[in-house]
Structures
1.
Amino acid sequence: MSPTLSDASPVLADAHDGLAILEGQSVAQAYGIPLAVLLELTHRCPLQCGYCSNPVEMERAGNELTTDEWKKVLTELAEIGVLQVHFSGGEPSVRKDLVELVRHANDLGLYTNLITSAVLITRERLTEIADAGLAHIQISFQANDPVLANRIGGFKNGHAKKLEVAQWSRELGLPLTVNAVMHRQNLHQLREMIGLAVALDADRIEVANVQYYGWALKNRAALMPTIEQIDEATSIVEEERARLRGILDIDFVVPDYYALRPKKCMGGWGRQFFNITPSGKILPCHAAETITELDFESVRSNHSIAWIWQNSDAFNRYRGTGWMPEPCQSCAFKEVDYGGCRCQAFALTGSAGNTDPACHLSPLHEAIFKTAEREASEGGDRFIYRNFAGGTLEPEL
Amino acid sequence: MSGIVAPATRRRMSVSEESVPALSRGTKLRLDETRQRWVLLVPERVMAPDEIAVEVLKLCDGQRSVAEIIEQLAAAYAAPREEIAGDVIAMLQDLADSGFLVEGKKP
């Protein structure tokens, strides 16, 4: 046995803690079942955020999986080796069976996470959810200033309600992540939002810059930050991380419109993650339905979830590196970023098989970057609110 | 301003030989039957502890002190106590800074 703890294993990410972030299988010929799965229980949501990652064509309540169908899905996920489930939406607490689903998942030994807007949750319901075995709760905040926050979410008094639910969460002993979706209209409050997370006794804050597909693409002109805002946000995060070490974990990803190389989206298409939609479709990413040229298999089909993961056309289409066009195919980074984001390539170039224009090697990068810069400086601030009617323009400000 | 009644005053856990570490509520050490390895399930991530990290994490039961954990490991691995002590405290401090440990009950 090694006399020190630090060099005991080749999977060490860090010299001290003996832990590496466990990624799904990295062996190209066998795509192992993901460790974590996102379950979008519903697309219904009382909030109307213009950056929602749900597709613009949302699933109606009548198409949602039933309680029994979701329970069967959870059982199958646990059997094939999934370890963590994230209950999301839409707003997952709209589902009357949320407590029952959390309990079922917990009984199966799954680690359960609730990703919620929180505005519909009563103290009684939260207590039931916690008692059902919830391991962690993530609550979104739209800004630090209540007026701005409620305007962004398009929901009256939402911010006050969120504060209340966050406090109850901590009183019940639930670990809390504050999810802060950032864009041009709230980045000036980033430091205050980190302060809010500390005041709420949160364990983590996710500073999530908007990703531009689905609803967010519709609202890009109202959301696109300036490069100065991104630079300032990056230095605020660095300062606050140093100041809050051991108190608050800060997760931050630079928006890829302003990066030179694309993000390793979802850890690579079909490599370590999948998502189940309200109607049971299995997607390689929560935004993948925006790629209208793909068909996705459902848990309601005759195929098992494992079969769909391994064999369905939608998963295999952009897996690995074989599908890549130039300049990706001969690029030294092709197994670093796996070609970036397919949804973004589709949204901005019309084909999901093209190079992600976030990459500076894309022939479209320059034009798109210029558009982003122009929208950041000239775009109006009115949102197109998310709803089942295809969106409603915010009244004059 | 933000309507918070009582701002929290969370402090950084400073690990010493007197600390009595326990896994925090959102942190679960489990044997992954499918992949035949131990995993640490934490909010929004799955961590892969190495063999010795697993041994250390198993001893973080909210009853044992860090001093006791060090002695147990020094005996188990027949290694000098002072060498084990530095490594264990550094590892536990990193785990605490990541939010995976809390101070357990004093006996």
2.
Amino acid sequence: MTRVITITSGKGGVGKTTTTANLGTALAAQGAKVAVVDADIGLRNLDVVMGLENRIVYDLVDVIEGRCRLRQALIKDKRFPDLCLLPAAQTRDKDAVSADDMVALTNQLRAEFDYVFVDSPAGIEAGFRNAIAGADEVLIVTTPEVSAVRDADRIIGLVEAFEKGHPRLVLNRIKPRMVSRGEMMSIEDVLQILAVELIGVVPDDETIITATNRGEVAVLDRVSRAGRSFSDIARRLAGEEVPFPALEEHPGLMERLFGMFGRRPRGSER
Amino acid sequence: MSLFDTLFRRRDGSANAAKTRLLKVLVDDRYKLTPEMMAQLKIDLAEVFARYLPSIDPDSIDVTVQRGESNDHLQADIPLRRPSNT
């Protein structure tokens, strides 16, 4: 059974596209057939994040308006032939796509793929509603900041109003040292405010920027902590029980103390 | 979070301010219940309860919205002054 999973957030710039690229790649690396759809019409971005911008011939609007067949518009990933991107159009016509179009498109993709990830635009308008129209499940991305959490709360309400079930939360860009100083909301704080199920926590990590600069995804970088977190989320999506590792940015005082005795405290392997 | 972090985490850090402010603003966002309406609700509640229980201190009433998975709950904490037995 194919699962159509929409990644959304309300606020822009919290990591929707990065999350989509990483989860899609991680599941493809595990052997699944995956399509990633850029539903941000007019602001195409998933292609550059995945390093596929030079291969685009047709886009999502071309498929919907019948200028090409779906297969012609799908771009194969550089590494995984079972990972395909459907790029957004760069058209300025916001009404080029309807919710019914998106349902039809995702249904067509169901025939070929195990997972279909839809990267939603920011906001709560038509673009967002189109992005969730064909979804079976929704993931909300947020960061531990007041504006992002507030918008996430609005989006959670809307997702439930559109009867898309209970969305799950990706808490992105957490800075463990700031949390331990009491200067950033903790995982527990955010969960208490939003009252949703957590599917993963991704630490703030420079490797996301360096990987994206090169058009690569962090999930394939073995030393990337954010990449490992996205990998864990992909495994949880696939139904695996993956424990939530303790967050540690650099060796803290406790670890250094334990380090002197040649061992590490429990739960700090990462 | 390690024991070390729990022990030394600052209670007056900006994270607590963020959380408190968010909890308030989200009640308004979701239920259109402004802080002024919430204040009036407490006054009205105190009035009703005082008809039956004179030992209520109207200023100590705390009304909050508790968030749950499928439903939120309006929770009122109404402390009673213990009657003196003498």
